[in-house]
Hints:
The protein is of the alpha+beta class.
Amino acid sequence: MQPVINPKHPGLAVRVAGEEFAPYVWGSDFSFHVHxxxxxxxxxxxxxxxxxxxxxxxxxxxxxxxxxxSFRGAAxxxxxxAHLDDCPVGHLVISTNWNGFAHIDELAVHAPxxxxxxxxxxxxxxxxxxxxxxxxxxxxxxxxxxLGACRLYERCGYVVGGIDHLRYRGIDPHTAEVxxxxxxxxxxxxx
Length: 191
């Protein structure tokens, strides 16, 4: 696949992951600051979700690039890396899910590279990959503490298809983290 160049950000290109993937992941900061948890509601825009303010904290999900070794070269999955001025700054791991949708297993952008169109460019590549495989749409999961990601998905045409209040209780029985499942349907944009 030829690199996809973003016309709004000419120094931004997305390529299939190569040898740079693991070193880039190990050397990147994927953390984000949390000030509130959104009380997600199906059918309601993110800006209208009630917010539960929390003591500010920094959240980082551990990313192990070796977890995705089996995704490389497989017919039903791919790893893409976004480069800004030839420096890797973001990635997307995508696969075909059991239900026929494309599944974004991971989308992450190095903190200093945010607000440069990196995540949007990766989502555009995910849509291209999915449509090329004639899949009906894309699904992904994020959490109610990552409101920036929720806003991005909404802007890109994703809608909330489900909310799971118990998903993370096995890790921490007292967590306020809630899983939000987003869908981007290609043929029927009205859920």
